[in-house]
Design brief:
Blueprint: E1 5-11, E2 21-25, E3 28-34, E4 40-44, E5 58-60, E6 63-65, E7 72-73, E8 79-81, E9 99-100, E10 102-105, E11 108-113, E12 138-146, H1 150-157, H2 163-166, E13 184-186, E14 189-197, H3 206-211, E15 218-226, E16 231-239, E17 242-254, E18 257-266, H4 275-293, H5 315-332, H6 336-341, E19 348-349, H7 353-357, E20 365-366, H8 382-385
Parallel strand pairs: 19-20
Antiparallel strand pairs: 1-11, 2-3, 3-4, 4-9, 5-6, 6-7, 7-8, 10-11, 12-18, 13-14, 14-15, 15-16, 16-17, 17-18
Length: 386
């Protein structure tokens, strides 16, 4: 699991004013809440006083109060009130917890889990411009969790060669050959557009089955992933003018469990009555993927390239893995084994930007990484991808 990246923490609708929400990401605990103006806040969930879970507390006047002794913390994580000591008490400088940058996009709450300053962070990916085109595109959304490692899940998501063998509703079993075409590298990922033999008409059911009842010869699919934000875009064009777009984001809960956030936009059958059918189709495809990816070995990645036989049809997955390994080598991979060994006796937290500004006086220790942090550890630019 990697620090210094954007992750979707929750659906925007799940975080309400006055109601704190606890979320686990990267093996650590966080609390989300909204200020009175609607702005979302993300803090470390563990109180620096006696270790209580802040998500069990209350929110008032833009502050979150610990459920144990009522200590209040502002949006920056600074303790601003200790009720047991009275209003005139000089609050210790160590009375603070980590606060993380938040951006809302696609009605998701994205949180930057790391200590990079703003000018060294990547932007939240912009992979679904159709989301705001509500007159032409209808969007459905879903969230689910699965016992799958995040690297294995994302490699599956950007793998088109598995379609004929894993999914019953798409992929041409009669012609499983992958179209080998150049891949466009991007600063934080890659994009490819392929033409493949279309599935047989009888593989489609419901609205899609009716609209695609005539046999097709070819179908076009564009696929893009971004390691920044850990997300991907899949855009099949069924026939000219008829398409759908899926945007998926993966958030590691721990090395073996991942929370998935998904949006699917379609420019056909845009009536709300067709939503459930599309959700059912996505859920079926998700279960088919999980059935395979939850049993791959080794179960936790990134797997060294030399430990698998990779071919040209795996180029997108290979490139994704290359990018992840580069970030591991920068010292951003959490040492989860160490975190688990110390769990009963120590609180580790993801380091926040405030720690970089002032690394002293923190009660909870920054989570360990598997390799030393590189001195110049901002996000790589285009020169990094080669």
């Amino acid at each position: 699991m990697l620090i210094n990246n954007w992750y979707v923490a929750a659906e925007s609708s799940d975080v309400k004013i006055g109601a704190p929400l606890g979320v686990k990401m990267l093996g650590c605990d966080f609390v989300l809440y909204r200020k009175n103006n609607g702005e979302a806040v993300c803090l470390s969930n563990v109180c620096c006083h006696r270790g209580a879970a802040l998500c069990q507390g209350s929110v008032s006047e833009d502050r979150i109060a610990c459920p144990f002794h009522g200590w209040q913390f502002d949006e920056a994580g600074k303790c601003v009130s200790i009720p047991s000591m009275g209003p005139d008490f000089a609050i210790p400088s160590r009375a603070k917890i980590d606060s993380y940058p938040v951006v809302e996009k696609y009605d998701w709450i994205w949180v930057f889990l790391g200590d990079l300053p703003e000018d060294r962070r990547p932007p939240v990916p912009d992979l679904l411009p159709e989301y705001d085109q509500t007159d032409k595109w209808r969007t459905t959304r879903m969230t689910y969790e699965a016992a799958v490692n995040w690297t294995k899940a994302e490699e599956n998501n950007i793998d088109t060669a598995h379609l004929p063998f894993v999914h019953s509703a798409f992929g041409a079993r009669q012609d499983p050959r992958a179209t080998i075409v150049p891949i466009q590298k991007k600063p934080y990922g890659a994009r490819v557009e392929r033409e493949r033999t279309a599935p047989r008409a009888n593989q489609k059911q419901g609205v899609l089955g009716e609209l695609l009842k005539e046999e097709r010869t070819k179908t076009r699919v564009s696929l893009e992933f971004s390691v920044a934000g850990l997300c991907h875009r899949i855009n099949p064009e069924f026939r000219p003018g008829m398409a759908q777009v899926a945007l998926g984001a993966s958030t590691p809960i721990d090395p073996k469990n991942t929370r998935f956030f998904g949006l699917q936009a379609r420019n056909y059958a845009i009536e709300p009555s067709a939503d459930q059918e599309r959700l059912d189709g996505r859920r079926k495809a998700m279960l088919e993927d999980v059935a395979i990816s939850s049993r791959v070995r080794p179960p936790v990645g990134p797997t060294p390239m030399r430990n698998e036989v990779l071919v040209k049809a795996d180029e997108m997955e290979t490139l994704f893995r290359h990018y992840v390994i580069q970030l591991v080598e920068m010292g951003w991979e959490l040492d989860y084994k160490k975190m688990q060994e110390d769990y009963d006796h120590k609180v580790y937290v993801i380091p926040s930007p405030a720690r970089r500004v002032d690394p002293h006086g923190w009660v909870h220790e920054a989570a360990p990484t598997t390799r030393p942090r590189k001195e110049d550890d901002g996000w790589p630019t285009e020169s990094w991808i080669g």
